[in-house]
Design brief:
alpha/beta, Rossmann fold, 2 domains, seven-stranded mixed sheet, two-stranded antiparallel sheet, 9 helices, 32% helix
Length: 255
Amino acid sequence: MKSLFSLVLRHVPRPYLQLVGHWAARAFGVFYTGRNVECPVCDHQYREFLPYGRSGRDNALCPNCLALERHRLMYLYLKRKTNFFRDNLKVLHVAPEYCFINRFESMKNLDYITADIESPLAKVKMDIHSIPFEANTFDVAICNHVMEHVDDYVRAMSELHRVLRPGGWAIIQSPQDFSRATTYEDPSITDPREREKHFWQNDHLRLFGRDYGRELEKGGFMVKEDRFVMDELSKEEVKRFALPAGEIVYFCEKK
């Protein structure tokens, strides 16, 4: 199973996966019947989650809604630590994930806009370096696993900051190598295999280190590095929801 998922992720273009992947995942989910793990996004239970990733992470992908570890963590964070499910909010979701789109669109308290440069799931076609909305438009911005792909991440972060209203907030997550003190870039590495070795995927332009919060501050944000999963969730919850135990949530505010 791991080899199959790795092969598909390496060779099938992402837009096609976004359109049809949920059908395949649900079919595989029939073989994972059980109650050991639970997806907080869709409330489905399984023996374990599907493997996922180019290296084949175990217990990662919810067969029903396609939530990965980071998505389940973000959903819990939004629900328990923010006003996302309570207040009337205008939301910009960049590179929207399948597991969230229908759920967030159905929430009557949200004016919810999805945007991406290539995703067939997004309603607005947009380059994050030049967001086509006026300043002070949104209350919330969500942008996960994008900053490692863009040419100028400080400009992209600044654009998210610009379109937020004062008092607005964003969650901007990216892969991190916590063994590195600083963000790593090397455009001289051009071989795809070498880029995957150095940056975890060949389409990543950088690998953020422990300085990611400071890099986000360059976009104008006040950044809280929230160790929610480590400090506020029980070991039982982390195991039950199959969460990324060491991930920090970067809560970015516009003052």
